[in-house]
Specification:
With about 300 residues, the protein is of the alpha+beta class. About 40% of the residues lie in helices and about 30% in strands.
Length: about 300
């Protein structure tokens, strides 16, 4: 496991968290769990029920010891969860926050929605190194609307991306923290090529992170005029008049202010609105009918432009 540290820009890629799942008596691992890095999240006596070991920022030594225990006791295991993270150092918290907010305006994970979680009080946890005033989550959004009309949105999925500011445990300074969170052994192997501890120890984490980033993370801006033309049903209009352009820009601006200015939020907000409109009784206005007909990915492709 090569944790590549780039001195020229002070960045490092590493495993922030990993989980191993297996069917075996927990007593085999008593000595290993004395290590502070290791948490056993599920202790069971019935060997038919899976047991899970959760390790934060595992060192190569810790992984080799675990590999030895698994081999000696013939324990069949699989990697059920992994966080591959990159920390980029900044001279201060404010400069790291500024970089994060700039990225947040344009960054989006392909095939995903997203949300920005704002809550400085909840994220301030110096013991864990959290100092961010907000966190961006990219994944599969799911919304629940209660009887009062209140909306709760969560980001789910087996392949997620998040970004926030924290104190790096590796660089020991304020940093921009980006991480890919992958769940399920088959998904982890498909995305990273890592199947077991041996493969993890040999993996080039920097290369894996760069491949995931280049394949799935895009930077785009929402074109307000194209957005407005699309909402007006005139997306194929090649030469709109000045009056139509002004109308389209106004529609686009109103839409962005209501549903989100960031590409990562737009899909999530649209999903919530469509769900709310479906639950609404009675007739629908022309605007509401147009919102219900929107297809997320096609709609985003029409209105985004690469940076």
């Amino acid at each position: 496991m090569r944790e590549l540290k780039n001195e020229s820009r002070k960045s490092i890629v590493y495993i922030d968290r990993i989980k191993f799942t297996f069917h075996k008596d927990f007593n085999y691992l008593n000595d290993l769990t004395k290590n502070k890095q290791v948490r056993v999240t599920r202790v069971v006596r019935n060997s038919d029920t899976p047991c899970c070991i959760d390790i934060s920022q595992p060192s190569p030594e810790c992984l080799r010891n675990l590999q030895k225990v698994f081999a000696q006791n013939k324990i069949k295991y699989f990697i059920s969860y992994i966080e591959i993270s990159r920390d980029i150092a900044y001279p201060s918290q404010s400069s790291a926050e500024s970089a994060k907010h700039q990225l947040s305006k344009f960054q989006r994970k392909k095939y995903s929605g997203g949300m920005t979680y704002d809550g400085r009080d909840q994220r301030m946890n110096l013991k864990k190194g959290y100092i961010s005033d907000s966190t961006d989550y990219h994944g599969s959004p799911a919304a629940k609307i209660n009887k009062q009309g209140n909306v709760n949105i969560n980001i789910f999925g087996n392949f997620k991306f998040s970004i926030y500011v924290k104190i790096s445990p590796k660089l020991d300074c304020e940093c921009l923290h980006e991480e890919f969170r992958i769940t399920r052994a088959n998904k982890i192997f498909k995305k990273t090529g890592i199947k077991n501890i041996e493969g993890l120890l040999e993996a080039d984490l920097d290369l894996i992170f760069k491949k995931l980033e280049s394949k799935y993370i895009i930077y785009q801006r929402i074109n307000t005029e194209k957005l407005g033309l699309s909402l007006l049903g005139l997306r194929h209009c090649r030469k709109p008049s000045d009056r139509l352009k002004m109308k389209a820009q106004l529609y686009g601006l109103i839409f962005k202010q209501k549903y989100g200015m960031k590409p990562l939020e737009l899909i999530s907000r649209l999903m919530i609105e469509k769900k709310r409109l479906r639950l609404k009784e009675g007739g629908k206005s022309a605007w509401q009918k147009r919102i219900l007909k929107l297809e997320y990915n096609r709609f985003i492709k029409r209105i985004e432009r690469p940076l």
